[in-house]
User: Fold this.
Amino acid sequence: MSTQTTTAAQDGVATQGPTLIIGPAPYVHAPLTRQAILAVFITAVVPVLGVATYFFGWRALGVAVAAVAGAYGAEVVAHWARQRSLFGSPGPALVTGLVLALALPPAVPLWIPFIGAFFGVLVAQELFGGYGYQIFHPAMVGWVFLVISFPSFMEGWLEPFELVTAATPLSQIRAGAGPDLWTLFAGTTAGALGETSVPAILLGGLLLLVTRVADWRPVVGMLGTVALMGWAFTGNPLAELMAGAALFGAFFVATDPVTTPLTRWGRFLFGVGVGLVMMVIRLWASRPEGVAFAILFMNSLVPLVNLLTRPRPKKGATAGA
Amino acid sequence: MRRRRMPGGVRTGEPPGPLGPILSLADPKRLILACAQPGHQLNPLVKKRERVVGGQRLAEPNGEGFPIYAPCAGTVTDVAPALSSTGDFVLAIFLENDGSGETAPALPGWDDPTDPTPEAIRLRALEAGIPDVARGGIALARSLAPTTPIQTVVLNGCTTEPLVQAERVLLHHEWETVLFGFRAAIRAIGAPEAIVALSVADRPLVGTLSQSLTERDAITIEILPDRYPQGLERYLLAALRGVDLPVGEDPATVGFAVFDVTTMHALGRALRDGQPFTHRVVTVAGDGVARPGNYRVPLGMPLGALMEAAGRQGTIRQLVWGGPLSGTAVASEEIGVCANTRAVLAYQQPVSFEVPTTDCIRCGRCIDVCPERLSPIYLARYAEHKRWDEAEAEGALLCSSCGACSYVCPTGRPLVQSIQLARYEILRQREAERASQPKEVAVP
Assistant:
């Protein structure tokens, strides 16, 4: 600032103004900041959570709150252990908690979502360095942890409204008598809290795509693969798309920025891989559904996919020294 | 000759026309006219306390430069070093406006751009003190005398960046002058073909523009998508003609000459009206001014005075020289507007790091937008860990510093700045190696 004084003095005019602050570009930023991305994602989950509450009662909201509390609790504990400020942005915990909650059966006791989210965030996210460094989707890790540790609680499928025990459409389809397509579309079937209602998922998913918070490539890659394999092996691609967690996983899990590939083609391949693994599990493995396993499997391949689809600077472009 | 869209880039989101008028200003009380040009300094022709009139020559080149002229009449208060936008001190002429409005007689003009000979056009470009803004401000006369044959001359009407409209308003409101200059440039260079490249936001202009063209012109109008940094020559030529201009090379090496709108407008004025280059259009924006818009500003007008003229609002805490992606925040309001000042942005709060820097979320948006198909995420990481060799292998030297990666990064990471640091370190190492080599191969 002394320079300014000199120039002004030379000129004989006192123009010493307030201090200007220098700093790097950009001085205008693209609207999609990390916070905006998380906010849009959470907004997109709202219709799905709303329908879950309508179908399965207030209990659905309780499950969501418990899962978010577990996720945020894990962050606070990790921040305490790493001697950082305890209460960070709640965005990532909300995302992880909500995704896990919506992937759980309606009849779970409330401690189940809490410890599932707590484990997922602590082990899959915080131990890897915090949000941004995780390799595996924390909600899916939490889900698999619950399925392996508490299998009996993870089978609590209920019929919507009446809340009586029922079989999921996927098991019915495999048994040879699935519900008709309209019932599948409306989602008035047994299943995880957020996976049944197709309109709600499409509404939220469309918001993600239109705002460009999510890339369409993993969604199209995954759903396309599911439809193709469904058509080839069951002859009923629409049922394979609408029953189970395929739609929910495609829009809300396979589009996660952190645990998916960096490049556009990579993200497409990721979606294709998830669809493939999921259908293999559905058709030939002992479990009726396999979205979480498929996501985690493809998460582990992300570095490889990044390497394969890495953009190469144009050949022949020489650098001027 | 395959046409292709530039890879990557960001949408500018700039509104299509019609754009507001070019606003004029009262001549400011004081002017600070820098006497520095690429590679050399001008010789001042005036002394302290000397009286000058508008359009009078103030300084002369002592090599391959061009003279500068007084935008208005007044008294020279000093010839001394002044701060420039880069933070360096350069020799400058301080002029105090006496309000008399007295001007030197204009040079004779031509009614038609085909009247003057190519030699006369080059001479007038030099006499009128016109820089080739797109080529870092070397003399336009040099660009009009290419040493290699030029096939195509391009008017770059898509130097778009968010908020910056300085070039677009000239196309909208003073196209006749721009076309006059462009026709003269084509004539001076003797190129058989010419292109006016517009951004899609200016598609409504195509009708007016093509009406003013005649059969003899051999000028075609081409529309390119709304993308930043489409205006950089390398991407412009790739999009127009599928030509691969190597990084750092002059368009002349592939048979092209590219001119920006401001330069052609200045040439048109110099040839038709006999006026030297003393004013340019500057976009003023930001919440620090009550009347944002596109102003015709005399060269040398201090940024502070420009802020007053545009209705200073509140306390300006950050003042940006240039566009929001490629500009720099300056440390003083006592810097005079120069030929390359396309925009001045004023903010009441610092807007750098407005998006808080947090850990990378690996979304890949920086890779999506990079026009060089680099991976800014990796380059920045190498730079942060001082691994310069790996940064070079990843292509750090190919970066054109457009800043699209920093613009889109959701976590506010200074990606392009990290790459610039790597670039600086790599070139410094090379320089050091070069300096140490001659000793080893000593002359026997």
Notes: The longest strand of chain B covers residues 74-83. Chain B touches chain A through 74 residues (CB under 8 Å).
